[in-house]
Amino acid sequence: MGRRDELAAALARVCDRITAACAAAGRDPAQVRLLPVTKTFPACDVALLADLGLLDAAEARDSEAAAKVAEVIALRPGAAVRWHMVGRLQRNKSRSVAQWAVQVQSVDSARLVAALDRAACAAREGGQRRGALGVLVQASLDGDPARGGCPLPQLEALADRVAAASQLRLEGVMGIAPLGIAPGAAFAQLSAAAQQLRRSHPGAVELSAGMSGDFEQAIAHGSTCVRVGTALLGDRPLASR
Length: 241
Known about the structure:
Blueprint: H1 3-25, E1 33-36, H2 43-51, E2 56-59, H3 62-75, E3 82-85, H4 94-100, E4 101-107, H5 110-125, E5 133-140, E6 150-151, H6 155-164, E7 168-175, H7 183-200, E8 206-208, H8 215-220, E9 225-228, H9 230-233
Parallel strand pairs: 1-9, 2-3, 3-4, 4-5, 5-6, 5-7, 7-8
Helix pairs in contact: 2-3, 4-5
């Protein structure tokens, strides 16, 4: 079986899981976006996914993503792949990320908001981007600073900062179910925080929650974006290229 066939078969399995989870939750599968997490996988895989109709891709490190974006453009010049940043982001990488990402899902501090706003402004002035940079505020569900994310009591204030930034667009909330907490309980907490935030920011409708092993529980609690890596692309290499 060639790589394209492998990816097509995996995509069918993931789509079946999403459809079944939506049916169980009484939701329309069209409400849930599949976001392939392509970190550590080569640009040719992103190109094949684009051939299969998946025009979104998520990366976790700017150092890997910036080169991969250029490779995919060379491989599929006609495919308008939309790139998302989902990993922890250092402020000094903001300028590069603002040149290739349509959305950053891992914004967890006011200083990062300010850095991304400046970077998006510079990217627009330099002709590297046309519109505002989409942002999801990342919620911390366990309060562990080593895992990233904004503590829940501070999430709305962080969202206010994003909404006030001239070159950023607040699009919603992202979260990761922590180890040691049942995914269903974690996603229920995340969903409640997202609903609370929407009272102040009605346009922040995206809830990015759920990965390969737990996205059914996330869908049950309202996830609109599932970030899927291994279930779609297979086991990751031991180290990045």
